[in-house]
Amino acid sequence: MGNFCSCQVSIIGKVHDVEYDECDQKDIDFTSENGGSQVMFKGSSKSISMYCKKGTKGINQDAITVWEDFGGEKDTIFCGVFDGHGPLGHKFAQCIRDNLPSKLSTTIKMSQQNVDGANATNKNTYDEDKQHLSCTSWEKHLFSSFNEMDEDLAKNIAKTDGFCGGSVAVTLIKQGDQLIIGNLGDSRAVLCTKADDNHLIPIQLSTDLVPDVPNEAKRVINCGGRVFAAKEDPDVKRIWMAEGDCPGLAMSRAFGDFCLKEYGLSSVPDVSHRKITKQDEFVVLASDGVWNALSNIEVITIVASAPKRSLAAKLLVKRAVQAWKQKNPCYHVDDCSAICLFLNDQPVNLRGNKRHR
């Protein structure tokens, strides 16, 4: 597999089709066990492509993870993209990547043990036929694990290194024919589905939780925080403390950033779900470095045009970097990360005709 570089990406469970540059630290960074996270390669899968490329700002603050057979269930996959910010953003993103999935899995197992111990059949907890967790239960467990994760960050990172930075997160669980999305901040999940004429259509599965959203701004203002754009960046509304020009956070929900939690910044995820249909092709999870450079339709078009699935995420990130340089030649290129989760056995091209991998 080549040499390991610095620690940004982890794969738990079965190995996936991952394209990466073996010794290019700017591109893909696998996590070794010595780096504080598990990497296990077992079997193979054709359903996932993932790629991460360091930007030009400094240390890579993106982190991504995929857990196959999540919670011990063979038909369940967990995917997560975490985009850190601030001086300690990389620490926040890496810690969340390494711990959030296990917290969620533990929460689920404890809930299942409680149900089994009571010898009860709770229709609000399990699907009657497949004994899967219901969407209501997933929402409950996501709320619990996100809250526990934020509390741990406050105790471990913020306590020792100060309140410098945090991380957004977009997570997706595929359980059978259900997709459950948990989102904090401005990373995004977009589904590609086919129309009746076989043209591809993007469906945004998550909401960008930023101060521009009226309900998000209202919560911040009601808590005593302020929302306005800085003079040097008039197009981006930010969250500020009641007094002083800090920290100017461009998202309204995030892990960390504890100086803003009493002013309306929230670590409660926005949870949504969707039942997979025969028309649904794939889901793309990506950090804002991708979405700020490419539109939803551009993203799914690029992924669908990849010559093979294992190249999809790499192609997408490379195109995002190119677009970023063209649109913002005077700005540093942001870190760009993407996970492509394919939902069917055979890929389609842009006109809906089946093609070989």
Quick synopsis:
Keywords: Hydrolase. By secondary structure, this protein is an alpha+beta fold.
Give the helices and strands, then pairings.
Layout: E1 9-12, E2 48-53, E3 62-68, E4 76-85, H1 89-117, H2 135-161, E5 166-175, E6 178-184, E7 188-194, E8 200-204, H3 214-222, E9 226-229, E10 237-240, E11 247-249, E12 255-256, E13 270-275, E14 280-286, H4 288-291, H5 296-304, H6 312-327, E15 336-342
Helix pairs in contact: 1-2, 5-6
How would you describe this protein?
- This protein is of the alpha+beta class and 357 residues long.
- It has one domain: PPM-type phosphatase domain (Phosphatase 2c, domain 1).
- Helix content is 26%, strand content 25%.
- It contains six helices and 15 strands.
- The protein has helices at 89-117, 135-161, 214-222, 288-291, 296-304, 312-327; strands at residues 9-12, 48-53, 62-68, 76-85, 166-175, 178-184, 188-194, 200-204, 226-229, 237-240, 247-249, 255-256, 270-275, 280-286, 336-342.
- Strands 1, 3, 4, 5, 6, 12 and 13 form a seven-stranded mixed beta sheet that branches. A five-stranded antiparallel beta sheet has the order 2-15-14-7-8. A three-stranded antiparallel beta sheet has the order 9-10-11, with helices on one face.
- Helix 1 (89-117) packs across helix 2 and helix 5 (296-304) crosses helix 6.
- The longest helix has 29 residues, at 89-117.
- The two termini are 22 Å apart.
- Keywords: Hydrolase.
- This is Phosphatase 2C family protein.
- It comes from Medicago truncatula.
- Residues 47-343 form the PPM-type phosphatase domain.
